[in-house]
Design goal:
This protein has 279 residues and is α/β, with parallel strands linked by helices. Among the domains are: 112 residues, Conserved hypothetical protein from pyrococcus furiosus pfu- 392566-001, ParB domain (Alpha-Beta Complex); 46 residues, no CATH class. The strands form two sheets. The protein has a five-stranded mixed sheet with strand order 1-5-3-4-2. A two-stranded antiparallel sheet has the order 6-7. Strand 6 and strand 7 form a beta hairpin. It comes from Candidatus Wallbacteria bacterium HGW-Wallbacteria-1. This is Chromosome partitioning protein ParB.
Length: 279
């Protein structure tokens, strides 16, 4: 899909400017019931307390920043940006909301709206990561291109996407604010999902700091490495002892569920000698 690069990542000004009439933007007064949320909205979790606070602000000062919408063929509108303002307006029972209509070609509206919404500071880490993922999957962006458009490094985008690999319980806790993004990144240091979930519940119940989680995760990783290293030493020693007793090459390997001992022989006589040893 062709990208309108010049309009992406430049903020609301790129959505509302009219090049033929500099400084002049037509503000519409629309019925909230005629505006429908678009699929490009990355926000999944809306804090009711935040909506209530926004309602109080709108009730007192009005909607200071117009919504951005695009027109539909049925006379209604699709929301590009302003989901929280629209929800608050509906909750207050407002009959009209200020809006700016902006038309885009093809699927560019979805692309622009998604980027504009990702740039909002109040998205949680999971919503941002899923927004990055949509740009990559739906609009064929590379991680580097996502970072360039949003003013982030490729490493930042990569680390954000890694959050989506966490178990559902942890992702839900991150969305609900039970843990911070720092906690989540520390939990990613653990490769075992059951251990991740177990430590997550400890983080919530014991109010562990990010440093606590990092130290705990690092300790679990070191223990796992030590056990693996210790196991290899045991198998190597066993190979050596059997090879000396049987006068042939011996291999000892351990899989997830079972192990294997391979004893080499070069003749029937060797085989009889080996069998005689075990008898």
């Amino acid at each position: 899909m062709a990208r309108q690069k010049s309009a992406l990542g430049r903020g609301l000004s790129s959505l509302i400017e009219k090049r033929d009439e500099p400084g002049r933007v037509e503000i519409l007064e629309l019925d909230p019931a005629s505006i429908f949320s678009g699929t490009e909205q990355p926000r999944e979790y809306f804090d009711e307390k935040e909506i209530e606070a926004l309602c109080e602000s709108i009730d007192k000062h009005g909607i200071l920043m117009p919504l951005i919408v695009s027109g539909n063929s049925d006379g209604n509108y699709t929301l590009v940006t302003g989901e929280r303002r629209l929800r608050a307006a509906r909750k207050l029972g407002l009959k009209r909301v200020p809006a700016i209509q902006k038309e885009f070609k093809g699927g560019v509206a979805l692309e622009v709206a998604l980027i504009e919404n990702i740039q909002r500071q109040n998205l949680n880490p999971v919503e941002k990561a899923r927004g990055f993922q949509r740009l990559i999957e739906d609009f064929t962006y590379t991680q580097e291109e996502v970072g360039r458009v949003l003013g982030k490094s490729r490493v930042y985008i990569t680390n954000s996407l890694r959050l989506l690999a966490l178990p559902d319980e942890i992702i839900r806790g991150l969305i609900e604010g039970k843990i911070s993004e720092g906690h989540a990144r520390a939990l990613l240091m653990i490769t075992d999902r059951a251990a991740q979930i177990s430590l997550f519940y400890r983080v919530v119940s014991e109010e562990m700091t990010v440093r606590d989680v990092e130290n705990h995760a690092r300790g679990m990783t070191e223990v796992k490495k030590d056990k693996k290293s210790s196991g290899k030493k045991v198998y190597h020693e066993l190979e050596k002892r059997l090879a000396e007793r049987l006068s042939t090459n011996v291999s000892v390997t351990k899989g997830k569920r079972k192990g294997r001992i391979v004893i080499e022989f070069t003749s029937e006589e060797d085989l009889h000698n080996i069998l005689g040893y075990f008898n």
